[in-house]
Amino acid sequence: MLNTTGTDLREASARVGALRANLERVVSGKSSVIDLAITALLARGHLLIEDVPGVGKSTLAHGLARSIDCSFQRIQFTSDLLPSDIVGVTVFNQAARAFEFRPGPVFANIVLADEINRATPKTQSALLEAMNERQVSVDRTTHPLPSPFMLLATQNPVEFSGTFPLPESQLDRFMVCLRMGYPDEEHERKIIMSSGATTRPAEVLRPVLDAGDVEALQDLSTKVRVDEDLVSYILSIASATRDHGAIRLGLSPRASMAMYRAAQAFALASGRGYCVPDDIKTLSGPVFAHRIIPAERALGSSLESGIALINEILGSVKVPL
Amino acid sequence: MRFHALAVTSIISLLGLWAASLVDSVGQGFVLPLSVLAIAGAAYVFASKKPALKPLFRNAAALAAFAFLLADLFSLSGDVVTSGTRFLAIVLVLQLLSLRSRRDHATIYAIAFFLVLAAASATASPVFLAILSLYIVFLLWGMVVLNLLRDIDAYCKGAEAPEDPFGLPLFLSVTGLSAVCIVVMLAVFFAIPRTGVGFLERMSGDPLKVSGFSERMEMDSIAGVQLDHAVVMRVETAGGRPPEPLYFRGASLDSFDGAGWSRRAPVERLVSGKGGVFTFGGPGKRTVEQKVWLEPLDTEALFAASNAYMLEGGFRNIWTDGSGDIRLPSPPFSRLEYTAWSDVSGARAAPPPDALYLDISYLESSSEGGAVTELAGAATEGRTSALGKALAIEEYLRRNYAYTLKPQGGGGARPLEDFLLRTKEGWCEHFATAMVMMLRSVGVPARIATGFLEGEWNGLGGYFIVRRQDAHSWVEAFVDGQGWKTFDPTPLSGRAEGRGAVFMYLDLMRLKWNRHIIHFSFSDQRAIAGALEARASRLGNLVAGLLPGARPGTGAVLAVLLAAAAVASAAMLAGKRARRDRTRAKAPPYYTEMLKVLASKGTPKRPEETPTEFADRVGGPDVAEITGAYLRERYGGERPAAGETAGLQEALTRIKWHKPRP
Lengths: 321, 662
Known about the structure:
Mean pLDDT of chain B: 76
Radius of gyration of chain B: 39 Å
Largest sheet of chain A: 5 strands, parallel
Helix content of chain B: 40-55%
Order of helices and strands of chain A: HHEHEEHEEEHEEEHEHEHHEHHEH
Strand content of chain B: 5-15%
Strand content of chain A: 15-25%
Helix content of chain A: 40-55%
Structural class of chain A: alpha/beta
Mean pLDDT of chain A: 84
Shape of chain B: elongated
CATH topology of the largest domain in chain A: Rossmann fold
Strand order of the largest sheet of chain B: 7-10-13-8-2-18-17
Number of helices of chain B: 20
Strand order of the largest sheet of chain A: 3-6-9-1-10
Oligomer: heterodimer
Low-confidence stretches of chain A: none
Largest interface: A-B, 20 and 15 residues
Number of strands of chain B: 20
Low-confidence stretches of chain B: 195-209, 547-553
Number of strands of chain A: 13
């Protein structure tokens, strides 16, 4: 159990606060998005950002990577990208007269997979093992990925020509799926005014955490207290999606598990050593919406209708007192 | 932990010994040393934590006790209950001194049970009630303790056993619950009036049908029930079985129309009893007191031996008349219990029947014509007194006529003539009718009495068992100077069949059940209350005697005891509250209270709303403060500090009265 009154929590709060402040410098006016990104990081989850180009998806990913003193790789997904372009290849070393493995760009602490839906399903699925097992198997050899490992993927929900929408199995592996949304006028003005200084706003950031700090925070988050009744609350939301008429595919147990972990991380990110019902309610959209398949599937992304359905369910499930 | 088992077993042992002391023949002198031994042994076991007796010695002693039992049974007391109780008491103490396993504890409970049982059969003391109640209470607690010990032994092998599973709350709840049950049971037993017959039985509307005790008796009527073994009543006579045969008289009939009897003389008087006692005359020379348990009959007649002069029962008022009939205003349809006093001396002064009555009697006799008069004249030849004539006719009928229950072939319009002149056999109605008509034809006033013979004597319980087959009719003739005398012209038949001891015993049990349980009367309740009061005052005097100086009254002692009890329970409660305060949640009560207050003000929390959402919707720092403290404690397990609690109380008060935060 987390020592909620002790130094653990205070230190964690300080570190998370620094990270948040750092991110807010580059992604202004998006505190909830930042919180969700931190949540995914602390919960050892992966983050899918679904939005139109130019709202700061890459900036957020860069900012996160820059704030942590760790390796960062960016992969631009295209339709001709091959799996080996991601995970790496085995080449014959003439000098050593032996095969050796050349790690691909996925071997980094933070990987940004830009426009992930532009790659072929084959390439997309190459990421599957990396995301889930945190390891890569090439030619019957398993190569562990560095720790911490976090994948940030972006996709454009509007432009569909030449895209391969992510399959459910892969969507399920993203702990959090969020929309950036347009900034409000004031923040947009600020963004424009500050754009002159550098081309990459994230370049200016100094790391506030190192990989060890992140791992410590991740370990700490598993000790956050979750009341029995909150687990019941998660389960009743999950079972409500399974019985819902307008939902073709409800939430999997992996989804409930992801919510549990996300709630713990969210509570820690909020400076608490325990979860409250609000954590789950707040996280339900980002954690659950992309995992359900509405009965009437809209063309392209179903995130909108998923969010609407989850909200509807939240309005009917009783919150534990 | 084992302390509890030993304590409760010791208490149960002492209760068993106390019960044994109630069996008078066992003797206090026998039980007292055993009790001292038991207490000393228990104290030794407490202190040394090991049994006082080795098994070998225990077995040897038990064998000796068995030898003592045999000697006791065959030479000393010769009584099973006494010798058995003594033996069990000895074994109980031996067992207590050599307690080893849980089974030994259970054995003691069983032995104590048998001692209580023995006391139940041997005493009527109200102390027994206390012993039984305490036994039940402690038996339950003992069972709980034993079972918990067994479970602890089974599941905590090697592991650390719980410190003390038998806390005061468990003890209080178990014993309190059983005590409440006993009290309620006794209260119901004492307070609820018993109706004598079960509710359903009463509603079934099927009381014993016996005719002839009220308005009219056909000559063939009683024979119809002659073979019915159903018990109509049980009559306990004070002072054992009276030497003279008793006739339990229900009614008298005086008007004969040739086929049956009816009543002419009207029921005269409504008598209201004083305290349930009805008096119809002074006591006689030889009085028989009868306690009657009358089963439901469809007659209002109350049965008692002839010449009843006093009656006590739970009735409001009864009817009576000069003929000695006693009847209720209406048939009771329930089991009755009453006591009657009858003068059985056979010589009871009574006013002669008035002229009108005699007129009727003579008038009625004429219908049978000369044959009856002729027979009567022959039978009473040479007799001048009324008594002599009556005895002569009684003798004549007994000798010359035969008793039978077989219906007569004739069945004609004149059953009396058929009986007297042709068949010469019949049953009691025929004999009694013939005698009455013959007496009347020779100028002696006579009437028929109906009721029951005394039935079967149950020597075990000292009472008569009267059945329907004992229904009978006989003759009452007026003899100058001796009043109405009873004559029975019916020859004795061999109808009384002996019954085995088992039947008698079972019937006695039934009577006791009726007596002590069903008809546990108000006077019994009063008697027990009186006995308890006497005992209580004795106890008060005893306690008062122990105190130095002046002897305070019972009231003062009670006051001191009550005050001590109050102080003790207050201390206990305070300790309990302190304990509870340490463990009880602090903030959640404030939160639920706040929800209640806000709901009453029109802003209830919606079920799908989280506490924070609700706090945001309601707004205000007070709500946020209470919600925050609530969430911290409810989900974080962080208790608010002492000072914080006061702040929560203030916040709640402000929310209640819409006050702004200072």
